[in-house]
Backbone:
């Protein structure tokens, strides 16, 4: 048996966590041989609900569940964690503008970034789920000067999985035979679900579907799926979001299937001409606990226009919270480049985030 790893979850008594934590404790995220310590974090007023959930977890008698600790603040909750799943966020209230939502979440995520910086394990891997996920991840990352921006990611795997599921249903293929879907950009209706590189049973998808179905039905369906689920259920996606969190972390830590591409919101290093430093969803491959942007995909003018539109929204979001992004971390976010051969995260001058970091001495070729 391995040594247990520490996983912090914020918003731990919320709807997504209610599905997620049972999967994590049963080994779906990190494998059936990896014991876990869950450090669950909630708002002070939700601690009783969290205690109830912890009792249920205990009652499942999961062999891999080593310890559960409950916290009403992130400074305690992030202590020594290897993984941080930032799910809790301020929901949009009645009459609240998008800008107000950005601002109120900006405060939450800047505090969380500082707490990760000060208390988490140096190698912590962070996934932001709470919306607006991409910009919240940017804020957390910019407030954590001792951590590399590449340690912060945002969830667009739900959009990726939705695209796969809906395409499987349309073509009659099993989802396992569908590959190389890409979600570009923001986790919002501006995202671009790209099927130009996708395959069904190793054959290009675009030769097997109607172009007008792709443009007029498929793309708007993926972009607006979250809203469609809220309209039908009266509640936002929870179980599918939990599954996407599992898939995102599983692939990041344990690797993607050979030849497969997944979508992750990560800091842009300028690949595909995307503005450096924003958190943008790219096609990635993962191995050895690291991700790499899949380079060299051919992008036509039509696709480029859609990638630019979602990029413009992310730049606008960044500019709206600019005053909350400390100047001291601007450079590390601008100069990041992710080395393709080794997966080592390097700045443009060839150095890493920390000269003594083992990242620099591990030079595995993919
Ligand atoms: P719930 O409202 O059910 O749960 C959120 C929980 O977070 C609440 O229990 C609340 O007390 C807690 N919380 C709020 N602020 C906190 C803070 N500062 N520290 C600790 N806990 C805090 O929401 P749920 O359905 O679980 O969704 C959570 C977030 O995920 C929302 O922001 C939602 O918009 C976002 N989503 C993101 C998705 C993505 O793909 N990136 C998809 C699903 C979901 O819509």
Residues:
């Amino acid at each position: 048996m391995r040594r247990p790893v520490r996983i912090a979850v914020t918003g731990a008594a919320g709807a997504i966590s209610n599905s997620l934590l049972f999967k994590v404790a049963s080994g779906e995220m990190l494998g059936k041989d990896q014991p876990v310590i869950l450090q669950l974090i909630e708002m002070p007023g939700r601690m009783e609900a969290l205690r109830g959930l912890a009792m249920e977890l205990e009652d499942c008698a999961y062999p891999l569940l080593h310890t559960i600790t409950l916290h009403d603040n992130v400074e305690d909750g992030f202590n020594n964690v290897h993984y941080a799943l930032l799910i809790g966020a301020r929901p949009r209230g009645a009459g609240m503008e998008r800008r107000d939502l950005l601002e109120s979440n900006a405060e939450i995520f800047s505090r969380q970034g500082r707490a990760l910086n000060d208390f988490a394990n140096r190698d912590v891997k962070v996934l932001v789920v709470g919306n607006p996920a991409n910009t919240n991840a940017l804020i957390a990352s910019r407030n954590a000067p001792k951590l590399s921006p590449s340690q912060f990611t945002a969830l667009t795997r739900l959009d990726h999985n939705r695209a796969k599921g809906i395409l499987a249903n349309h073509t009659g293929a099993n989802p396992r035979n569908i590959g190389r879907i890409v979600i570009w950009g923001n986790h919002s209706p501006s995202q671009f679900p790209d099927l130009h590189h996708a395959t069904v049973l190793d054959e290009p998808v675009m030769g097997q579907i109607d172009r007008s179905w792709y443009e007029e039905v498929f793309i708007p369906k993926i972009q607006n799926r979250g809203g469609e689920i809220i309209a039908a259920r009266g509640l936002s996606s929870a179980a599918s979001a939990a599954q996407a969190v599992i898939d995102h972390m599983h692939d990041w830590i344990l690797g993607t299937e050979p030849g497969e591409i997944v979508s992750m919101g990560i800091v842009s290093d300028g690949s595909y001409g995307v503005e450096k430093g924003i958190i943008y969803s790219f096609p990635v491959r993962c191995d050895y606990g690291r991700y790499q942007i899949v380079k060299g995909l051919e992008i036509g003018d039509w696709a480029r226009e859609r990638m630019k539109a979602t990029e413009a929204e992310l730049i606008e979001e960044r500019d709206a919270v600019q005053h909350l992004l400390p100047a001291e971390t601007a450079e590390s976010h601008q100069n990041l480049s992710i080395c393709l051969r080794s997966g080592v995260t390097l700045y443009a001058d060839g150095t890493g985030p920390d000269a003594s970091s083992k990242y620099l001495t591990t030079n595995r070729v993919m």
Confidence is low (pLDDT under 50) at residues 339-353, 357-366. The CA atoms of residues 109 and 339 lie 28 Å apart. The domain at 5-154 is CATH 3.40.50.720 (Rossmann fold).
